[in-house]
Specification:
By secondary structure, this protein is α/β, with parallel strands linked by helices. Among the domains are: 263 residues, Rossmann fold, CATH 3.40.50.1860; 57 residues, no CATH class. The protein is 38% helix and 14% strand. The strands form 3 sheets. It has a 6-stranded mixed beta sheet with strand order 4-3-1-2-11-12, with helices on both faces. Strands 6-5-9-10 form a 4-stranded parallel beta sheet, sandwiched between helices. A hairpin with a 5-residue loop joins strand 7 and strand 8. The longest helix has 19 residues. The N and C termini lie far apart (57 Å).
């Protein structure tokens, strides 16, 4: 019925099941270590896990601060009467009386690059550790501390706000939780986004669903699989085509990763320090024949270029978030023209939590391409719509808390808590650069099953959150911003 979805969906389903079907504690030593090694910094005594779950917070994690867009969507969600839980907005956010714990695994981000570096299993280990943190009660006030604090609450439900983490790790962490016997539900964002995209289509519509995501999420085939499953379960009778485009370096640029964006750079950097698209790059090519379509911002140092003696461009590097967006959107549109010139792209899933920050810029470039050339105009709808999967995920979280009677009966005086991972300076094996980050080669060169505490998880602080990111949070995520208590 949907042949163009069926083959990749079946392949990805097999791969996903093979990961979940392994004895997870055999493949990932950390699973057994968490439950049984009392000397490990990751140890949790699950026998003492709270049985009265309703008063506990909801846990949310992402590879960085991008997942705060998901938390913002949860905090503004209003689709029910808060007293009766019947459908219908009442002007009061549905989660107004809930409290949350958020983890940004910033030290290990971006997650989207691990699979490309052959480290998909190491990524799954990181995701297991993210879940372990939310289930546990420890954190550090400062990375230099050797003794953790123990006043963090465990959680009653976990939301994976990261698309890449959902695509690669959802089945694995669900199996780990089953092994631990803790019975905490884990919700992932990919399925929510796929269901919403299919729901918006007509029952008989032969449509295209675009996916903008990290390269890891795209490589996992998680969204095509989820779309195929959503279409089948909903009884959709038309043909659904999925087209994916990786935002190479975009998530990292948004979070200020110097591998993709350096505010101090005034000229192209060497390839050990710049990992974004560039002309002639075998993995992430920048097509100089599309320069008019890219329409890069050339003001300031947003685009770093070099020319030869004859004035010909010999190097082009992206050095602004907006230029990464223009590259990604142009590549998707060019792919539509090549692969589906007879179809129209009407809706796009923003399949990375960082992307909803920049919906307007993404839309503007699609519309610029429509105005540029008739071939783009034919494949891009003038009213192209963008789906933030976070909104659907908020609805699924609401349904879960209602079904399991997990609404907090005593919310007074409780505060949300926000944590971020930073490189552990006390670990001799760690390589940490002058910016306090893992160098690229070290970050993606680490091996799984080492039992090393690569990072310390500490409260949000001006020390770890850049001024640009703080400004973005304050301006774009007002409900989340007012809940963050910054550690001084």
């Amino acid at each position: 019925m949907k042949f163009n979805l069926l083959i990749p969906a079946l392949i990805s389903l097999f791969l996903s099941c093979s990961h979940a079907g392994d004895r997870v504690q055999d493949k990932y030593r950390i699973v057994d270590e968490i439950a049984n090694d009392k000397e490990s910094p990751f140890y949790i005594d699950f026998a003492r896990y709270p049985t009265r779950r309703a008063p506990l917070p909801v846990g949310v994690f992402d590879s960085g601060t991008g997942g705060l867009t998901v938390l913002e969507a949860i905090l503004r969600y209003d689709a029910h009467d808060n007293c009766t839980h019947t459908a219908g907005a009442d002007g009061i956010p549905d989660f107004a009386t809930e409290h949350f714990e958020y983890l940004a695994d910033d030290a290990n981000m971006p997650y989207g690059r691990y699979d490309a570096e052959g480290k998909a299993d190491f990524l799954r280990e990181l995701i297991i550790k993210d879940v372990r943190f939310l289930l546990g009660n420890t954190y550090y006030l400062r990375p230099e501390d050797s003794v953790p604090q123990h006043d963090k609450a465990p959680v009653k439900t976990i939301v994976i706000a990261c698309n890449t983490a959902t695509a690669f790790g959802l089945a694995t962490v669900r199996e780990a939780i089953r092994v631990w016997g803790v019975g905490v539900k884990v919700l992932g964002i990919v399925e929510a986004g796929a269901r919403e995209a299919v729901r918006r289509m007509g029952d008989d519509e032969n449509g295209v669903i675009g996916i903008l995501a990290t390269e890891g999420t795209c490589a996992s085939q998680g969204y095509p699989r989820a779309v195929a499953q959503a279409a089948q379960s909903s009884g959709h009778r038309g043909t659904v085509t999925v087209i994916q485009q990786a935002g190479i370096g975009l998530a990292g640029a948004i979070d200020g990763d110097r591998n993709y964006l350096d505010p101090q750079a005034t000229a192209p950097r060497d390839t050990d320090h710049y990992r974004g698209p560039r002309p002639g790059d075998a993995r992430y090519p920048l097509d100089t024949s599309l320069l008019q379509a890219y329409h890069f911002d050339t003001t300031g140092h947003a685009l770093l270029t070099a020319r030869d003696a004859q004035g010909r461009l010999t190097e082009i590097q992206l050095n602004s978030v907006d230029n990464y967006i223009r590259y990604m959107v142009t590549e998707m549109a060019a792919k539509m023209v090549r692969q589906h010139p007879d179809k129209v792209l009407r809706q796009v899933i923003l399949g990375c939590t960082h992307y909803p920050y920049h919906t307007d810029a993404i839309r503007d470039h699609f519309l610029y391409l429509r105005s540029l050339d008739s071939s783009y105009a034919r494949v891009i709808a003038p009213d192209i719509a963008f789906i933030d999967p976070a909104e659907s995920l908020a609805g699924e979280l609401y349904d879960h808390l209602t079904e399991k009677k997990l609404w907090d009966p005593s919310p007074a005086g409780k505060k949300d808590r926000f944590f971020i991972s930073v490189p552990n300076p006390l670990l001799p094996e760690n390589e940490i650069d002058s910016m306090g980050r893992f160098p690229y080669a070290y970050k993606y060169g680490r091996e799984m099953n080492s039992s090393l505490q690569y990072v310390k998880i500490v409260p949000f602080s001006e020390r770890w959150i850049t001024p640009g990111v703080r400004k973005r949070l304050e301006e774009d995520l007002p409900r989340t911003w007012e809940r963050i208590e910054w550690w001084k």
